[in-house]
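User: We ran a pulldown and think these components assemble together. Before we commit to crystallization trials, I'd like a predicted model of the whole complex to look at. Sequences follow.
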Amino acid sequence: MTGGTNQVEGNIAALAAGLAMGLGAIGPGIGLGIAVSKAMEALGRNPEASGAIFVPYILGIALAEAIGIYALVVSLLLIFVA
Amino acid sequence: MPEEEGESLIHVAIEAEELFQLRPLSFTNSMVGALLTSLLLGLAAWYITRRSSLVPGRLQSAFELPVELMSGIVSASSSRWRGYVGLILGFFLTILVANWIGLLPGVGTIGITHIDASGHEAVIPIVRPASADLNFTLGLALVAFVMFVYWGIKANGPGGYLKELLGEPLYMAPLMFPINLISEFSRLISLSMRLFGNVFAGEVLLATMIALAPILIPAVFLGLEVLFGFVQALVFALLAMTYIATAIAEHHTSDHGEADAAGADHPTAAEAAHA
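Assistant: Here's a predicted model for the assembly, 357 residues in total across the polymer chains.
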C-alpha cells in the first residue's frame, strides 16, 4: 500500500466503515430501545410474567441486534478486505 | 492496520492466524481455542459425573445451574423437547465456554513473535477464542441448520416440508418459494454472523480500551463481555431451539407472511411467545 491512489482508497474505505457502523447502529438502537422499554413496561404491570417474557424478549433483541451486526460485518469487510 | 507505517497499539486480526502447518491443513490459533473448549467441557463432564450424587454438592450445583436453566427453557418450547434438548444444551455450553475463554488473562497476549510480510515484528497469540473465528460459528450454524431441516422433514415428511416452503395459497408459490428459500438460508447466515460479530467486536472493544486507558477502565468492559458472552450463548441456543420447535410444530393455521428476507425470523419470535 504505497501508491497515492491506494492511500486515498484506504482513507475512503475507513470513512465508509465508520459511516456504515454509525448509520447502521441507528435503527437497531431505536429498535432495542422500544423492545426493552416495552418489556420493562410489561414486567412492571405484571411481575409474575417475567418467565414468559424472558425468552421472546431475548429472541427479539437478538433479531434487532443482528441488523447492527450486519453493519459491523460490512464495516469490518471495508477495513480488512477492501 | 497494514497501510500505516507507525506502530499500532491495537493488534486485531479478522481471521484466525496460522500457528503451524499440518500438511493439508493450517493449524490456527482459534483451533487451539476450540480444542481447549472441548477439553474443558469434557473434563468438567467427566469430573462431575464420576462423583455425582442425588443431593448435589457445591461444585455439582454450580455445574448443574446452566443445565437446569436451559432444560427449563427448552422443556417449555414444545411437547417433543426431549429429542433436541441435548443439542441445545451442547450449543449453549460450547459457546459459553468458547466465549469466556477469550476473557482469561493471557489469551490474546501470550504468543509467538514473528516477522510478517511487510517486515514488521508481530505477535501471533497462541489461543484465540474459538467463537471469534467465522469458521467455528459457521460450523455451529450448519449443525443447527441441518438439524432443523432434518426435524422438519422428520415431523412433516418431505412433502410437508416442501409444501411449507411453497407457501399457503398455492398460486403464490412462484413468489413465495424463493423468498422462503432465502429466509431458510438467511437463518444460517444470521446465526453465524451474529455470534462471530459479537465476540469479535468484543475483542476489538477490549483491545481498543486497553490501548486507550490501560488502568481500571478495561475492567468495566471485561465485566460487560462476561455478560455478553452469556447472552450470545443464550441467544444462539434459543434461536436454534425456536427454529427446531417451529419446524416440528403441526401447521394448521399458516400465517407465514415472511415478506423480507433479512427479517425473516420475526414469526418465529412470535410463535415462541405462545409456545
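Chain A touches chain B through 22 residues (CB under 8 Å). That may be worth checking against your pulldown data before setting up trials.

User: Thanks, that helps.
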